[in-house]
Write a structure and sequence with these properties.
Length: 261
Amino acid sequence: MALRLKTLCIVSTRDELARIPEGKTLINTIYAYSYVVAQKDNYFAEALTNCDYLMPDGAGIVKACRWIGAECRPKERIAGWDLFEFEMSRLNSKMKECGNEGMKKGKVMFLGSSEKVLSLIRERAAKDYPYLVVVTYSPPYKQEFSDEDNRAMIHAINDADPDLLWIGMTAPKQEKWTYRHWQELDIHCHCGTIGAVFDFYAGTVKRAPLWWQQHSLEWLFRLLMEPRRMWQRYIIGNMKFLHYIYKERGRFPNKQQTQKT
């Protein structure tokens, strides 16, 4: 099951975020790198396809959808950071309007990353969102989680019973983990997979200045900041992205078509 932008359902504008109904909802993002990975990773493709809402976190995705004539053509980029700010502000405002009776606060859970990053998130969120309380869980840093690890993470989420849940373990690990265990999560809230946002919000990784974001160059900024870690994703990955997009548009015939001719 290779991912196809032509038939993928993607959120069109930021205004649509306000229309996402309350309740248990899985929200993922898609950008050039995740699209490329999903061409070879069938389970990742399934996770992206079957989530409740998919955000176009990348100018390349927005432009590609238009160019290939996709069924859903987003009008603007909606980054994981945009989703994060919207959801956090909305919940904070909601709790404020409740009058903070009995000092009740909205509960936000961050699962993923290191304890250092999570500590910085708790510290900043206490100032930015005074009507929210943050709970965190740092899973073990390993390629594959054991059954015991998974049970502990699921228990931590269910025990916290959050009003908003963020999963941050980098793509495609975070999307696949959440999709695989979605039915085991006894939650009533929105859940977003936003790995990089954990570091951006904590301040451990610098996000591109606004000018770079507005000119669709945030990827280049990250490449310049971390060339050793990001060169494959943004140089090799972007070349593969263009290849697959051309293929979706029909520039490259598939093997069956070639054999028939």
